[in-house]
């Protein structure tokens, strides 16, 4: 199993203030491939371990949001399945969507971490408290990330990011406790 990379000492202090994890979809929650069927339908594959990590983060008090430039019924369904109430789709101006997220969530930018993989994520990453990137992130995006996971998007990157956040917040042991409690 890949271990998440550690935050720098300066990033740990910022990671401790994070209360909301914001995620891009294509290239973060998925591998970034777009699959179209012959009848024009779109398909996306989501990683179940990333989904489990999102639920784990939520149980530890982290809210999760989605900001994605594309609009897809599969994203709506996945957000619903995972209990993600803050789901913004269909805008390439992700920084403008971030402004709405701040209003809707009642949070300030320094309490938000954003995980993105491509150039459209940069304005959000640079305005929030913590920038995260999967291994497949564009090099410019990776240069602005406080953490780059070993796993690429759609293959456990979100799980690594959640573990790193909870570890920085000294909540990883609490998150694991229900799974280790043997009667």
Question: What's a quick, concise take on this entry?
Answer:
This protein has 183 residues and is an alpha/beta fold. 40% of the residues lie in helices and 15% in strands.
Descriptive notes:
Strands 5-4-1-6-7-8 form a six-stranded parallel β-sheet, sandwiched between helices. The protein has a two-stranded antiparallel ribbon with strand order 2-3. The chain has eight helices and eight strands; from the N terminus they run αβββαβαβαβαβαβαα. The protein has helices at residues 9-15, 48-59, 73-82, 94-105, 122-127, 139-143, 157-168, 172-180; strands at 20-23, 35-36, 42-43, 63-68, 86-89, 112-115, 130-133, 147-148. With 183 residues, it is an alpha/beta fold. The mean pLDDT is 94. It has one domain (9-170): HAD superfamily/HAD-like (Rossmann fold, 3-Layer(aba) Sandwich).
Helical run tally? 8
CATH level 3 topology: Rossmann fold
Question: Ranges with pLDDT <50 over ≥5 residues?
Answer: none
For the report, how would you describe the main beta sheet?
6 strands, parallel
Please give the alpha-carbon distance between the first and last residues: 26 Å
How are the SSEs placed, and which strands pair?
Blueprint: H1 9-15, E1 20-23, E2 35-36, E3 42-43, H2 48-59, E4 63-68, H3 73-82, E5 86-89, H4 94-105, E6 112-115, H5 122-127, E7 130-133, H6 139-143, E8 147-148, H7 157-168, H8 172-180
Parallel strand pairs: 1-4, 1-6, 4-5, 6-7, 7-8
Antiparallel strand pairs: 2-3
